[in-house]
Amino acid sequence: MSTQPTESTAPVQDPPVRNARAKLTEGEAYWRDLYDWLLEQGYRLRPRYHPDWEPSWEKDFRLIAGLTEDSETAPHPHLIDAIRVADDGYVVLKRVPQEAAPDELPILQYFSEEPQHSDPRNRCVDLLDVLKPTDDEGHTIVVMPVLRPFDSPEFDTVGEGLDFIRQMLQGLSFLHEHRVAHRDIRSENFLLDGSQMYSERYRAWRPNKKFDYSGPIKPSKARTSCWPEYHIIDFGFSKQYAPEEMPPSEPPKFASDRTIPEFKNRDARCNPFPVDVYTFGNLIRVNFIEGHPDIATQNGRKGFDFLLPLVDAMVQEKPEQRVTMAEALERFDDIVSGLSEWKLRSRPVRIPGDLVRRLNSFERASVTAAHWARKLKYVVKRVPPLPYNAGPPLKEAAEAELETVTNQPAGATEELNPPPPGTAEGDTEGPELDAIDATNEPPPITTADHTEGGELQAILSKPTDVADQPNPLPPTRWRVTQRMRQPRTNQRKLLVNLSSHLRERQRGIQRIRKWKQFQVNQRTPLMNATFRRLKKQ
Fold this sequence. Notes:
By secondary structure, this protein is an alpha+beta fold. It has helices at residues 26-33, 35-41, 56-59, 104-111, 158-177, 223-226, 272-289, 308-314, 325-337, 341-344, 361-381, 394-406, 431-439, 454-460, 464-467, 478-485, 489-536, and strands spanning 43-45, 79-84, 89-97, 129-131, 139-145, 148-149, 180-181, 190-192, 230-232, 239-240, 301-302, 349-350. A 5-stranded antiparallel sheet has the order 1-2-3-5-4.
């Protein structure tokens, strides 16, 4: 009796793939299906997401998967990089769920409108475009610029790290001022705009590689040379409250930081604004001071211990005892105003351990020498150790001082600039000039006009030594510029001595190399003669 073969009901499996990178993930398949539609909207995805894509390493066996541009996978299913066809700009597309994150798009649009967008305190990421797929009504695609991690490349000076902290304090304070709680503060949500630091385009997901995968990429400028901007991203957990809802009280929103005291009781309601203060204070402590015991790449940095009082005020156990974000910014400015230029230009060192490798003596010496060379260049060129709008508000202090002078009645300005003790009236030489040189203050103006308002005119007039320069500075900024840009005399002498020491050390190394080469040259003929004699024997 013959049996008829029955039809198999087993599912048909795909043929085995030689490399896992040759197959798109489920999240990548979503973007592949939108390739043509996005191209119509003016955005071109990478060749990997073309409907007819074939792996380059499958066609050319000389190529290796993982080292080609089309083998790079997207790290997140809701993010993809693209080229804007109109101007060849490099952008990032984000798929935003309207139901799970209903406030993300409205918040991005709110801070992209005027007058919020032009406010210098606004650190929200720019919203370049909004796309609405026809086949995906539950999601919206937002277009943003390509950014990189805030500590990539590493901070070269303490001032560069303080610039990042101040910009984020300023941005978070601006959010709270507009009744927006971020509720997901972590390192990954603070990014750097590296467009001024890098002359070449880098990969969005591999920021240390060139765009064409031809090799690694290094910055062409340091932060001190251009002072880049930092941005706040990821408003998926954020919420903007109405004025009548302040102060809010909501159930805890569990994100990345699980050490928040309010989250110990999952059923208790809390105010999200003090939670933001705690999480950012904890971020400063983990990334810049103490490190994190469970994260192998975060051991903290040496050189930021002076921020501990600020961190302690931000991470108080009780929310009502914590400072607000605006108060934290004021305390930060007070702390930074007491730092010397030497401290601001010092090099922060990551604490070694776990995945943070300890440098050997040669690497440490080369890195230190390169840092001192850059530091010497900045001092000679009078590049400030902090950007003009970071650190102590010297400009605001100078303007306030000028306003105080202008509001004084006639004849009262003499009290603001009293003559040095022991100086005779009308004497402009001797002890008075010595006192001026010692205090590094602008020289006093002598004028014959002592009528009503004449002394005020003398104070507001330009100093004689500054007026003779090709581009004299405005009188209101003279003292600010003196404090920010003129190094102290002892620091300048120390840097000059250090420069000469480095030159002497380099000359010593060259002499040692020449002596070793001389020994090799002398030893080679002797060894050849010895070998010939032994061969004859």
